[in-house]
Design brief:
By secondary structure, this protein is of the alpha/beta class. It contains 11 helices and 17 strands. Bound molecules: nicotinamide-adenine-dinucleotide (NAD).
Length: 413
C-alpha cells in the first residue's frame, strides 16, 4: 500500500504538508522509553508507517529503554527494536538516535523530555504532557528553545489522528456547523469498577498526577480544543474517589493489566471527573471522565451542536461520523452516518478500499507520519508542547474548581 493520488500527501495529514516521496530519504533514528502498553502501540506505529505512507525520512527503530535489562531485551526482540538500554540518559546520549519517544508514566515525562530536547533530539511525549502545570511549562519552554535549533516536540494525543475526528475538525473549520453552541464529550471506561483491582501507578498521584482526569479527561479536553479551534476559558468541576483503598500491586503492571496482594494502600487520585466549561467563542462545553462506567470499555463519545448542524462520534465505532445538516429541509433532514473510509477522508488514501475500516492502532501510525513530516519540513507539529501545556492548565483549573465545590475557575495562561 502506498499513497499514490495527487492529494495523497495533503489528505494523509490535515496539517502535515505534502509528501516528499521516497527519493533522497535519510534515516531517522528513534529511541523509545517504556515498552508496555503505549510502548507496544508506538512500536506498531514506527514499524508500519514507512510501509503505508511515502515518507520524507525513514524511521529506524534504533533502541528501546526500560529499567530491567532482561525484560527490555525481550521487549526489543518482540517489538522490533535493534538495541536495548536500561537508562534513559544512555538512550538520549546515543549518536544513532534523533528522536526520543516517551512512553512512561507522567512522573518521568518532564525530566526525560527536557533532557532530550537539550541534547538536540526531537521528542514525542505521551499524554498528559506532565503531572503539573509547572512541569508542563518547563517542557513547553524547552520545546520553544529547541524549535529555534530546528527540533520539534509533539504530545501523543493520538485521537486527533482518528480519520473521523480529523474529518470532524475539517467540517467545523469549513463552517459546516455554523456557530458552535454546545460541545459535549465523555470518556468512559470500567476497569476500576472491581474494588479488587490493584493500586497501579495510575492510582497514585505522585506517579500519575491525577486519575481519570489526567488519563481520560486530558484526551477529551485536547479534542474539544482541537475541534473548536479555541482553548477552554474556564471550568466548574466535581471530582470523586469512589474506592479509597485497593490491594497493593504484586509484580509489574502493564497497561490496564495487574495483580494485587493482601496488603492495601490508599488511592490518591480521582476516580471520576465531571465538569462544564466555556469557550471564548461563546460555546458551552461539558466533559465527563470516569473509569467506573460499567460496560463502557473505551467509550470516547462527543457531540457538537452548531447553528447549521451537528456532529456526533463514538470511539467504539471509530470509522463512523454522524452528521446532521440543519440547513436541509426539515421534512427530510436528520442525522446520517458518514462511513469515514473514502480516499478523500483524512489519512485514508494510503489504506484500504472504501468500507475496509481502520482501528485504534492506526492512530499511532498516523501520529508517526505527521511527526516525521513535521521534522522533515521544520514545521511545528500539532499537538505541540504548548497545546499540551494548555490542556494541563485546564486540568489544574478542574482540580482547583473541584476543591472549591465547583466554583467557576478561569483557566489561567
Ligand atoms: N494515547 C493513549 O491513548 C494512551 C493510552 C494509555 C496510556 N497513555 C499514556 O502513556 C504513558 C504510559 O502509559 P502505559 O499505559 O504505556 O503504561 P505502562 O504501565 O503500560 O508502561 C509504562 C512503561 O514505562 C516504563 N517505565 C516507567 N518508569 C520508567 C523509567 N524511569 N525509565 C524507563 N522506563 C520506565 C515501565 O517499565 C513500562 O515499560 C502514560 O503517560 C499514559 O498516560 C496514553
Amino acid at each position: 500500500m502506498r499513497e499514490t493520488g495527487p492529494d495523497a500527501g495533503a489528505e494523509a495529514g490535515p496539517e502535515a504538508g505534502a509528501d516528499a516521496g521516497s527519493a533522497g530519504k535519510r534515516p531517522l533514528g528513534v529511541g523509545m522509553v517504556g515498552y508496555a502498553f503505549m510502548g507496544a502501540a508506538h512500536s506498531q506505529g514506527w514499524r508500519t508507517v514507512g510501509r503505508v505512507f511515502d515518507l520524507p525520512v525513514e524511521p529506524v527503530l534504533a533502541a528501546v529503554c526500560g529499567r530491567d535489562g532482561g525484560a527490555v531485551r525481550a521487549a526489543a526482540d518482540r517489538l522490533g527494536w535493534a538495541a536495548a538500554e536500561t537508562d534513559w540518559r544512555a538512550l538520549i546520549a546515543r549518536d544513532d538516535i534523533d528522536l526520543v519517544d516517551i512512553c512512561t508514566p507522567g512522573d518521568s515525562h518532564a525530566e526525560i523530555a527536557v533532557a532530550a530536547l537539550e541534547a538536540g533530539k526531537h521528542v514525542l511525549c505521551e499524554k498528559p504532557l506532565a503531572n503539573t502545570v509547572e512541569e508542563a511549562e518547563a517542557m513547553a519552554e524547552a520545546a520553544e528553545r529547541a524549535r529555534a535549533r530546528g527540533q520539534v516536540a509533539m504530545v501523543g494525543f493520538n485521537y486527533r489522528r482518528v480519520p473521523a475526528l480529523a474529518l470532524a475538525r475539517r467540517m467545523v473549520a469549513e463552517g459546516r456547523l455554523g456557530a458552535l453552541r454546545h460541545v459535549r464529550l465523555t470518556y468512559l471506561q470500567d476497569w476500576l469498577v472491581d474494588a479488587g483491582f490493584p493500586l497501579t501507578w495510575r492510582l497514585i498521584k505522585e506517579h500519575a498526577g491525577s486519575g481519570a482526569l489526567g488519563d481520560l479527561g486530558a484526551h477529551i479536553v485536547d479534542l474539544a480544543q482541537y475541534l473548536v479551534g479555541e482553548r477552554v476559558a474556564g471550568v466548574s468541576a466535581l471530582t470523586e474517589t469512589f474506592v479509597r483503598e485497593r490491594p497493593l500491586l504484586e509484580g509489574a503492571s502493564s497497561g490496564l493489566t495487574a495483580a494485587g496482594g493482601a496488603r492495601r494502600g490508599a488511592v490518591t487520585v480521582d476516580d471520576a471527573a465531571v465538569f462544564t466549561g466555556r469557550f471564548p467563542n461563546g460555546a458551552l462545553a461539558s466533559f465527563e471522565a470516569t473509569r467506573f462506567a460499567a460496560g463502557r470499555k473505551n467509550a470516547l463519545r462527543l457531540e457538537l451542536n452548531g447553528s447549521d448542524g451537528s456532529l456526533a462520534f463514538d470511539l467504539e465505532r471509530l470509522n463512523e461520523l454522524s452528521f446532521h445538516d440543519h440547513t436541509e429541509p426539515a421534512a427530510s433532514s436528520g442525522f446520517r452516518r458518514i462511513l469515514v473510509t473514502e480516499p478523500e477522508h483524512p489519512y485514508l488514501a494510503a489504506w484500504w478500499p472504501p468500507g475496509h475500516g481502520l482501528g485504534y492502532e492506526h492512530t499511532f501510525v498516523h501520529q508517526a507520519r505527521d511527526l516525521l513530516h513535521a521534522i522533515a519540513t521544520g514545521t511545528r507539529p500539532e499537538p505541540s508542547f504548548a497545546d499540551g501545556l494548555s490542556v494541563q492548565r485546564v486540568l489544574a483549573a478542574v482540580e482547583e474548581s473541584a476543591a472549591k465545590n465547583s466554583v467557576y475557575t478561569p483557566v489561567t495562561a
